[in-house]
Amino acid sequence: MGGLQYHRGETPVLPRGNSSFTTVVLESRLRGLKTELHRKTTTRMKKLLFSLLLFSLATAVKGQDSLVYSIIKEAILEDSLAREEMRFNRDGILMPVRGLIQTFTHRDFNNLPGPFRESGSATRWGDYGLALSPLAATWIMKACGVKSRSTTRRMLTSNAMAVGLTVGVTQLLKNTVSETRPDGTSTSSFPSMHASLAFMGATILSREYGHISPWITIGGYTAATGTQMLRIGHNAHWMNDIAMGAGIGVVSTHLAYFLTDRLIGDKGIRRMPFSPSELAQLQAWNHRPSGFRLISGTETNGRSLDVTDFAEAEAGFDMTGVTLRSSASITAGFEAEWFLTDNIYLSAIGRSTMSQAKLQIPDNNITAWGEQIHIYHGNISAGWILPLTKEVHIGARTLWGVRYNEGVTFRRVAEGMQLGEPLLNIKSQLRPEGGVGIIIDMLQSHNQAVGFTIDYLHTFNTRFMANRWVIASSWKAMF
User: Fold this and answer.
1) Which residue in 206, 261, 421, 450 has a CA-CA distance of 20 to 30 Å to 223?
2) What is the pTM of this model?
3) Is 103 helix (H, G, I), strand (E, B) or coil?
4) Which residues contact 168 (CB under 8 A, 6 or more apart)?
């Protein structure tokens, strides 16, 4: 059988060469219905014609070769995904919600005594290099002639709108909120412009070139997540700043594309051809969808701990009544999944976590510098998934592995904002951990999905941040 010629938004045409009378009738009906569907009809008439198309397909292929039916079924599914392209994309819609929640829950922590040391200029133009790399990659690929979702004119329209919305909303909030940065260098902390631009660029890259390979999407969001971690590592932002910035960037970009689609219609959207192997991958979505995913999100615990349970005091410092206050953490990592059956899988997960911490000391004459806490997780997971709809999977899993936290020393803020003597030390630890979680995946194209995970992890034989919740977005490339 010859190659299937099919483009997004068009009626599938079966390969020629089959002498079956029923196949000939099927082709004739498809061509006739294609003409009817492209007329300017009412919504009710379009629904009626589409129903007739489905009825015609079911009647024509009844009793025929299963391959013919399979090709038609896959083509109809791919056409439904093409129609989804013109709708508002919900990928990342929870990011600004997470940012708002952290903004309200972190207000007390951000205002606690305990400055963070300055690490160069808060702007750090070098950080913009990583933040803008996804957007730069988009236009470099365009300049090199790689076919994108949009023509140049349409891409300029949607990208200009995305930049305007992202920068405008971010700067408006900066001017309105006037949040002091952790290192005290300015009052333009909330939200992070670097994070906004990074996730805006990653979303543009995914929208324009994600159809070529899911690794392009994963690469863009990896750079965006790396930007978030750089901004925290340089003490330029609070955790809620980067979470809100990411949400603004993603949602502003999807809104810009949605508005462009409404204003221009489908004019200027390239119709990408799909090969039979790509259409066959749609079937794999419900049959062992093994893959590799990027994880980017938040890890959190009770955020107020008695230091006498796990820390060691330096000479002359009384730890009585001293508590460790920590922010929610940014967490990022990768997961490789292997499906043993259509529903049961094993996976290997590696994550890095970074949080901000302060000491709350009863003696008002002593203030400690804020510090960062780094935790690393390595887990093996076993789980199962259940198709909720043809495009959505939901599942549950159990996780077991180890957790390692780096040691950290808190020091006094000396006169003149200098680094003073050590107050207490938290030693590094390697401990076993285990937990459970849920996962939701939504099909984006023939070989990639987006989703989110919620995991609960308990670390054994320690009182240092033993119970952790992990809420993360994910981008999955299917093998």
Assistant:
1) 261
2) 0.82
3) helix
4) none
Quick one: pLDDT band at residue 3, thresholds 50, 70, 90?
very low
The CA distance from 229 to 130, in Å, is: 11
Per-residue pLDDT of 293-351, as tens digits, reads 999 999 988 678 999 989 999 888 999 999 999 999 999 999 999 999 999 999 999 99
What is the residue type of 368?
Answer: A
pLDDT, tens digit, for every residue of 33-57?
555 544 444 454 455 445 445 545 5
Sorted by where each begins, the domain ranges of the chain are 21-84, 94-264, 276-478
Residue pointed to by tokens 């460790």 = 324
Nearest Cα neighbor of 55 from 34, 30, 74, 91 is 30
User: Any idea what DSSP says for residue 159?
Assistant: H
127 phi and psi, to 5 degrees? -65, -30
* CATH code at 276-478: 2.40.160.20
Q: Distances in Å between the alpha carbon of 149 and those of 290, 412, 477?
A: 26, 55, 19
Which sign, positive or negative, has the C-alpha torsion 45, 47, 49, 52? negative
The residue that leads in pLDDT, 12 or 291, is 291
Tokens matching residue 206: 């995914």
